Amino acid sequence: MRSELIKELFQSFIENDDTKFFRAAVEIIEDEEKLKHHLLAKDLKRIINSKNQNKLILNTNNSKKYKVSIPIPRDNDKGFPLLEIKERYFSLDDLILDPKIKKKIENIPKELSFREIFASYGLRPKQKYLFCGSPGTGKTLTSYVISSLLGYPLVHIRFDSIVSSFLGETSTNLRKIFDFIEQGEWVVLFDEFDVISKKRDDPYEHGETKRVVNNFMQMLDSYNGRSILTAATNHQHLLDTAIWRRFDEILYFDLPNEELRSQIFKKYLSVMKKSKDLNIFELAKITEDFSPADISYICEEALRRAILLNVNEIRFEIVVSIINEHYERKKIIRSV
Ligand SMILES: Nc1ncnc2c1ncn2[C@@H]1O[C@H](COP(=O)(O)OP(=O)(O)OP(=O)(O)O)[C@@H](O)[C@H]1O
Ligand SMILES: [Mg+2]
Q1: Which residue has better confidence, 164 or 188?
Q2: Which residue intervals define the domain AAA+ ATPase in the entry (predicted)?
Q3: Domain limits, CATH 3.40.50.300, in the chain
Q4: Taking Cα atoms as reference points, which of 152, 94, 4 lies closest to residue 296?
Q5: Is 293 near ligand 1, meaning CB less than 6 Å away?
Q6: Distance between Cα 68 and ligand 2 center (Å)
Q7: Homologous superfamily of 54-253 in CATH?
Q8: CB 162 within 8 A of CB 174
């Protein structure tokens, strides 16, 4: 481990500076990954990610990143929190995507660092991103990766939970959320965004939904803060063009092709020794239409079985049988 990083860790402890600690920890994890110490890197990530959320909020109240104590907004009616703050570490390597999309993600910190120069030309960096595409393709994960790249905590908003049964309350909830995010630098994720953004001209839609959609678009338009706003949906067909226009960038997360599937298998099987006959390319070939989340599930199951069988290596025929079981599972899910 590099000596300056050890010093920074100690210094951050003395200064009670979470931001400094986090930055050093992230560099250490990246170094270990480069050295191919995947198990250690994974353990370190798990430790960082298990940081108690309440503690995080307490600490961040003292941090320079946020303004003084910010209470989490709650729904007036039922009293539940309207958002969750999450600080988990992911590196860009955790995301296996079409290189064109990955490049756009990679560019976000660079764009933000040009904020002042952009402003001198009357421009702003791109801040509003819409992620659409099939389930399990990495939309939520991408928001976490951006949050790690920028060192901004993630504010996770589940749209279905803020749509209140009381007329008028939903817009109030949205206002509270925007008031909250104005007070800091975050990566905001409006998840399952389509719940609220159903086509505004849908005759079956209640007038309240139309009003809420209008309200949301106004808030999105007038948002002037420094956060990155992301919205994710796998029902992009439900969104109308007025919504699409509000975003600076729309990224489509497609199912992975064979090459990307190989990379995903390689990544998720890297933590254990593989049997000689294990052919990653063959696994990628027989998993057409599988999402990265499907592949991650299959790999985890293969690891579990190897451990239970006490064989300490991943065997090709076991992975193939899990793939076949998963095909059946997908068939059942599709038929319901
Ligand atoms: N592109 C990817 N690269 C690597 N792993 C991925 C990728 N996409 C998904 N995964 C794995 O699958 C898990 C679930 O993915 P994620 O929650 O980001 O999907 P999603 O697109 O948000 O799905 P949904 O539309 O159902 O919300 C991730 O935590 C990760 O383990
Ligand atoms: Mg998601």
Answers
A1: 188
A2: 125-257
A3: 54-253
A4: 94
A5: yes
A6: 31
A7: P-loop containing nucleotide triphosphate hydrolases (3.40.50.300)
A8: yes
